[in-house]
Design a protein that fits this description.
mainly alpha; ATP_synth_b/b'su_bac/chlpt; 89% helix; transmembrane helix; CF(0); plastid; transport
Length: 189
Amino acid sequence: MKNVTDSFLSLGHWPSAGSFGFNTDILSTNLINLSVVLGVLIFFGKGVCVSCSLSDLLDNRKQRILNTIRNSEELRGGAIERLEKARARLRKVEMEADQFRVNGYSEIEREKLNLINSTYKTLEQLENYKNETIQFEQQRTINQVRQRVFQQALQGALGTLNSCLNNELHLRTISVNIGMLGSMKEITD
């Protein structure tokens, strides 16, 4: 304590004008600096309580920090809610995509089977038409050959008859042959 009082006593004593030096006693210089700062604060603050304004500043800062935290929590909650909604929409879209994929594959398989079945039916119909056409052409050819053979046989018989028969027999044979031709034509039609 003696050092403190000595430092205040030494304030009143100024060394001679020719010397200048530093006071290396830390305790005494800190007290001087603190007293100067308090004096300036009192003079400019006009009696404002330093601890009160510091407390108000800290309270204000604390409120701002709490408001910021509260706002951040609200934003976080909203972001989590939007994220959950987005995930739900994603799951829904994925399920719809899977459903479309399954339906698409089923539809493709169904169309493929329908195409194969219709192709088989078309081939079967073409085969039936071919067989019917072949039968028709065979029948027509057989009828043409019969008709030609019959005509040739008839011409041959007429030629033989004409050379062997007289007029009366000739007319009677022609009548019989015409009757036979008429009955044959009715049978073929």
